[in-house]
Write a structure and sequence with these properties.
By secondary structure, this protein is an alpha/beta fold. The chain has two domains: 30 residues, no CATH class; 121 residues, Response regulator (Rossmann fold, 3-Layer(aba) Sandwich), CATH 3.40.50.2300. The chain contains seven helices and five strands, in the order H-H-E-H-E-H-E-H-E-H-E-H. It has a five-stranded parallel beta sheet with strand order 2-1-3-4-5, sandwiched between helices. The model has no long low-confidence stretch (mean pLDDT 82).
Length: 166
C-alpha cells in the first residue's frame, strides 16, 4: 500500500486552526513554540543587500546560524532575479550601494504594492541625523549603525519577524 506524501503547508494550516480553537481552553499552546515549529517547516527569509562581500558573508552566517534563510545581493541590479524567485520576510540594506544608493533603492521598493509591507532595516556606517530621518521617512523599520552589536541586530530582526509573522 503506497503512503500519501504529507503536504507540510496543509499540516501547518490544520495545526494553526486547531491552535486557534484551543486558545480559549485551559490548555493554551504557547505561540512561541508554534512559531518555532513553523520556522523549521517554513523558514523565514532575509534579503541582504550589501556591496561589501565580507559584510555580506558575515550577515549571512549570523542569520543562517539562527535558522533563517538568506538571499544575497551586492546591489540593486541583482534584485530582479531574486524577487522573481522569492518574497523575503525582511530586507536588510546598506546605504552606500553602487549604481543606486540604498535610499533610492528603498524608495523604489516601498513604492511597490506588495514589497512595501516587507520590513526594512538599514545597516550602514552612514548614520548622521539626516540619514536617520531620511531612512525613516522612506519607511525603514529600523536603522543599525556599523559597526554593530550582533545581539542587537539579531534582536531587531527577530522582533520584526515576529511582528510581521502570521
Amino acid at each position: 500500500m503506497a503512503k500519501k506524501k504529507v503536504n507540510a503547508l496543509d499540516l501547518i494550516q490544520k495545526i494553526e486552526k486547531l491552535t486557534k480553537e484551543r486558545m480559549t481552553s485551559p490548555e493554551v499552546v504557547q505561540l512561541d513554540q508554534f512559531r518555532d515549529f513553523r520556522n523549521k517547516v517554513e523558514p523565514r527569509t532575509i534579503l541582504i543587500i550589501e556591496d561589501d562581500e565580507t559584510m555580506r558573508t558575515a550577515l549571512k552566517r549570523i542569520f543562517e546560524s539562527d535558522g533563517l534563510q538568506t538571499r544575497l545581493a551586492s546591489d540593486g541590479t541583482e534584485l530582479s532575479v531574486i524577487m522573481d524567485e522569492i518574497t523575503p520576510d525582511l530586507i536588510l540594506m546598506d546605504i552606500g550601494l553602487p549604481w543606486i544608493n540604498g535610499f533610492e533603492l528603498a524608495q523604489l521598493l516601498k513604492e511597490h504594492k506588495e514589497i512595501k509591507k516587507i520590513p526594512l532595516v538599514f545597516v550602514s556606517g552612514q548614520a548622521s541625523d539626516e540619514d536617520l530621518k531620511r531612512a525613516f521617512a522612506i519607511g525603514a523599520d529600523d536603522f543599525i549603525k556599523k559597526p554593530f552589536e550582533i545581539d542587537k541586530l539579531r534582536k531587531t530582526v527577530q522582533a520584526l519577524l515576529k511582528i510581521n509573522g502570521s
